[in-house]
Design a protein that fits this description.
36% helix; four-stranded antiparallel beta sheet; binds magnesium ion; binds adenosine-5'-triphosphate; Rossmann fold
Length: 419
Amino acid sequence: MGVEVSVEGLTKSFGSQNIWRDVTLTLPSGEVSALLGPSGTGKSVFLKTLIGLLHPEQGSVVIDGTDITQCSAKELYEIRKLFGVLFQDGALFGSMSLYDNIAFPLREHTKKKEDDVRKIVMEKIDLVGLAGAEDKLPGEISGGMRKRAGLARALVLDPQIILCDEPDSGLDPVRTAYISQLLIDINAQIDATILIVTHNINIARTIPDNIGMLFRKELVMFGPREQLLTSEQPVVKQFLSGDRFGPIGMSEEKDEAVQKQEEAMQAAGIGGGGTKDDFSEIIPQVQPNPGMPERKAVARHRERVLELLPSLPENAQRAIRESMEQEDQIREESRAHAANTQGVEWSDTDGEAQVGSENVMVDTSTDVIDHGDRNQGGYGNDYAGDDAQTQQWAVPEEAKTQQLESERPEGGRHYGGGS
Ligand SMILES: Nc1ncnc2c1ncn2[C@@H]1O[C@H](COP(=O)(O)OP(=O)(O)OP(=O)(O)O)[C@@H](O)[C@H]1O
Ligand SMILES: [Mg+2]
C-alpha cells in the first residue's frame, strides 16, 4: 500500500518573502491528489518541501512515521527511497542519452545486472512512448519528450510516493491524456500515493481523488475532487474557468477598485474570456485500462469520503453521491467487458503489484544539466552534511541555496486549524 504523507502547519518563506503558511493536508495512502494554484503560489516549493529539498520554518511532514523536517540526513535519505519525483522542468543530464538518464537510478541505487536494467528501462521507455529515441541526447528531442523521459526516470523503481510537477506541461492534449491514463494505471498496479501539480483543468476534473488549491499564501481547500469542482468560492471558480475576472490577477491579487471595475464590465455583458463549462457537473474519473487491477485506493477513498460527507457543503455531497453511482456503473461495465473479452473473471488480485525493494528516485530541477561529470555540477553535491549516501540524491540548484538559509526563526507565528 502507498505511504501516507501527512503535512501539518507547514510554513515556508525565502528571507522575508512568505510563500505559504499553515498548510495542513494529508495525501491519503494510495490515493491520487492534485494541487492547483495560480503561477507563483508555491506549488513547486511545496513539492520540494515534501521531499526535504527545501526546509520549512514551521510545521511537520510526516512520512512513514518520520517527520522529515526534523530527521537526520540518514533518515531523510531512507525516506527519499520511497519517492519518485518528476520535477517541473524534466531535469535530465544533458550529456547522457535518454537510456542512460532513465537507467541512472537503477545503476546508482540497485545492484541489478545490465540485462535487468535494460529490461526495465526499455519497458518504461515504451510506457511513455519514447521507443526509438533511447539513444538521443536530451538536447536533441522536444520539450514534451524530455518531460516524458523525466517521468520514465521517476517511475523506474516503482516508487511508493510519486510527485509530478506539471506532468502535462509541454505535452499536446493527446499525450496528456496518455500520461494521465498512465498515472492511473500505475496507481492501480502499485497503489502508490500520487500528487500531481497541474494547471490542466481536464486533469483536475478526471484524474485525482482529491484536489487542493493554493492561493494568497494559503491552502484554500483540500478534499474530495467534487468538493473543489462544485465550490462556490470565487477564486476556485475563476481558476477552473480560466477567466480574467475574479480575485486572481496577472501578478499579485487584485485590489478592490479593479474588482469593482470588472464587476461593472461583467454587468455590461463584457466577458473575461473564461469557459462557460459547468464544473459542478462531475465527469467520471478515469479508470485503469482493461487488464489492469482495480485501484485499491478507491474503496479506502470512498470510506473516508463517506465519513467526511456530512461536514461538506450540500452541493459537494450531492456531487459525491452522483459520482459514486457513476463509478459503480462504470466499474460494473469494465468488469463485464473484461469478462467478455478475456473470458476470465475480473479479479482484485490480477496483476499483483510488483514493487521494487529499492525504491529510489533521482532527479534534479534544472531542465538539462550540461556536464559530463556528475561529480562537478548538480550531482554529487552533498545535500545535508557528510552522509555520503545522501549525495546519491541529485540536488536542485534551489536546494543548494537552501543550505545557506539561516536557522529557523524563533517563535514564528503558528496559525491554528487546517485546510
Ligand atoms: N530557491 C528559491 N529561493 C528563493 N525564492 C524561491 C525559490 N524557489 C522558489 N522561490 C519563489 O517562491 C515562489 C513560488 O515559486 P514556485 O516555483 O513554487 O511557484 P509555482 O506555484 O510552482 O508556480 P508555477 O505554476 O509557475 O510553476 C516564487 O515567488 C519563487 O520566486
Ligand atoms: Mg511550479
